[in-house]
Amino acid sequence: MLGLLIPATEIFAQTFQITGKVTDETGAGVPGVSVKSKTGTASSTTNTDGTYVIGIANGNGTLTFSYVGFVAQEVAVNGRKTINVTLKEASTTLDETVIVAYGQQKKITLSGAISTVKAEDLKQPVANLTNVLAGRVAGVIGVQRSGQPGYDNSEIYIRGISTFTSSSPLILVDGVQREFANIDPEDIASFSILKDASATAVYGVRGANGVILIETKKGKTGKPLINVQYDQGVTEFTNIPEFADGVTYLQIANEAYKSSNPADPNPKYSADRISKTASGVDPDLYPNVNWFDELFNKTGQNRRARVNANGGSENAQYYLSLGYYDEEGLFKTDELASYNSAIKFTRYNFTSNLTLNVTKTTKVDFGASGWISNGNYPGSSNESIWGSAYIMPPILIPKVYSNGLNSAIRTGDIANPYTLLTQTGYVTEFRSQLWSNIRVTQDLAMILKGLSATAMFSFDNYNSHNIQRTKSVDGYLASGRNATTGALVLDKVSNGTSFLGYGRTNGGTRQFSTEAQINYSRNFGKHTVGAMTIFNAQDRVDAFAGDFIASIPYRYLGAAGRATYAYDNKYLADINFGYNGSETFAPGDRFGFFPAFSVGWVLSQEKFFEPIKNIIQFAKIRYSWGQVGNSSIGGRRFAYIGTVDGGNGNYSFGNGLDQNITGYDIGDYAVGVAWEKATKQNLGLEIKTLNNDLSITADVFQEYRTGIFRERGDVPESVGIRKLPFANLGEIHNRGVEGTIDYNKRIGNDWQLGFRGSLTWTRAMVINDANAPWPFPWQQRIGRKYGQRFGYTSLGLFTSADDVANSPYQTGTNKAGDIKYKDLNGDGRIDGFDQGPIGYGSIPEIVYGFGPTINYKGFAISAWFKGISNVDISLNGDGLQPFSQGGERGNLLKQITDRWTPENPRQDAMYPRLTYGNDNMNYANSDWWVRNGAFLRLQTAQLSYDFAKSNWLKKTGMSNLSIYFIGYNLWTSSDFKLWDVELGDGKGANYPLLKTYNLGIKATFK
Fold it and tell me: Is the pLDDT confidence value at 93 over 60?
């Protein structure tokens, strides 16, 4: 016996024991991870805190770490007795769950069109969450038209625009309709975009424009995990317009004046004035002002700080978060002013989510979150400051006279932009948003296995408080200098208040939401079944309504249901319905039924697929059809009720006696108003190949939107209706394709390569716009894409007087160098009947994005490119139409030198012949002034290092530490150079988008 035991004891003593901990990317321990010897039979599982112990035959083996939802890892032991591992989330695993309407579903059994965004991809150095979506997920169209702090929302559309009315998607945060622009992405656990009818039909009259579902983080069982993060950024404008200097302005003005007044021997501006402007001998009388240099600093800054904690026991888990964001704009201030007119935006975010397991079958989730913001702005609006910079030429007045008096001109609508920025006081804006909800979930397995019930109540409160402390100042205009003293001779041209006034506006809403839901989910062998039915209601009140109608609550009420079935994860079916309505519609017609279904087939589960499994590991086809509604129809609220207009209806009697009698008239006609109805179809394909490293998803979709609420434009004037009624007449057909590719490859233990790309193309065609037919086919809006531009078609520039004489008549005085237009109807004259389709429009048809990710040990580098195409920009407004209003009004872009002249008669010049006054059709709406608005932008570039595996880290009390650099909007490629291409139509007179250089550090304590 002893002889047998001694060798066994020796063998046991030679067993190599390894301990360690498995964490996720946040540093939290991962329980239940399988730890195995690759060559032997030894195995273990991590404890609740992620620790493990395993014994293997020797110290030269290899361990494998695997867990559902994470990328499996193989780690060589190499004689180490402590091995800590960080598992990375497997974003493409089919076992992961996806948040869907009123629940969640395994990705493999999903048959609707739903996309998800990683929360990490949303963490960019910007305040507004809407600005990072476009291009990152297929099906989302987005453009940002302003970079003004606090007012920089992007326009977001899911699968384009399908209606003449509101196309904004429904946003649900933790199951409640809410805005998401000001959410801190650090608090987001999941972000889903629901696109087809099978995914959105349960939302009934609110789901036609797509749905965005956001779930905030909740606590996890375990020791407290604390994350601390700080970011510091430096900002600058991406691109701003450049104006011609004063000398160029004077010379160009002379040229334009001579072109319009050839008989006048005198120039508009003398050579002496031009010379003195160039020399800068007297900036008070001969100014040469670059207004943008006087208005803007070169750089601004933003910064962000966050701290959050989560943890808890088996019966109670918590997640607490506090965030701070601060941004200083690029407007200059007057250091001598007794107030601060700087543009600044500060926001505080807070989130508190608590989960209580009251009993073994009862769970309570309570959440309270929101944000508080404070904005500081100049006393004059951003639009007026920018607009004045475009209107005020550089040669009229200095920003301030040398004696300290404020400069101004006599013309009332042309203001000194520097005075507007620094001398008109300041505006402060306080906004706050509070969200609260409580949800109780009861497991009813004692009645029926797989059955559960949920009830939720939510109260949200939003308030805004705006204080205007504004003023005006005395304005002076210099006419010369005193011959004796040399002092300026000044005329007072405007009187100011010289003291701050006071104004206040308030706004806010209160919203109550309730829902009650029953769920069933069960597996029967190869059969997986699920069902859900829900009742919900929402009541939103304008707390500061200005009239009786506005004070009436906005209400939604309805029920919805869903049934799902999957056989062997191979054959999938999903049936949905929504039955709900809105107070907008007449009693008896307020509710509608919205059905939808989807089916899916996982081909790769079939036996016939086995021969190609080594090439394609997974393949699924899905199809959906359904109807959804849109109750945000625009027009007048409660349009089913007619109104009486008293005192505005004038009746004329008699023959030439002009006897007008005031009386009553119909204000608005009562009409049978209903919701818009969207009938949608979707066909999708999902593939995984290259050993599951490459995922490809593609969808083809179409939508018919009918019943769009439109004012009737087809009622002839002879009917005698003063105000045309509305009706559900509009129709639009939208179609498109979208696709996503996702590649992730681990090479050895140290390298990981990734690439992601998405593409969306949509086009909406007008089927019925409720307007009367146009006289000519090229004028028709029906049959054209929604948003189609219309204008004149240019044929180049006139080359000679004979060319003008032999061309159709155009209004005004036309000469060589003026734009020549196409006579579409052949009547020998150019007028409104010759305006046809030009360009694409201001909303892009194509949005795409792509970017690589490379990880090596603790280093990571990534980039994301965003692009849009099939979009254009229409140029118009002061600064783009030189001297179109005659006199000294309107700045000139520096591109003014690219113009047609008799000495340089170029057909490809930007500007046609310059004139002084609008005496021709050069600045009529035409394709001459339409520019390609496509661009490709390096939206994000990131470099980081993670110290998670550093031995010294534990001594500091940290479980993880990372430092990183993020560059945002670093580079843009576009044919359009006048201003930031994403600002779109007009003259670029808006606060530009920002380029950001950000350094950050994040530490995790446990």
Answer: no
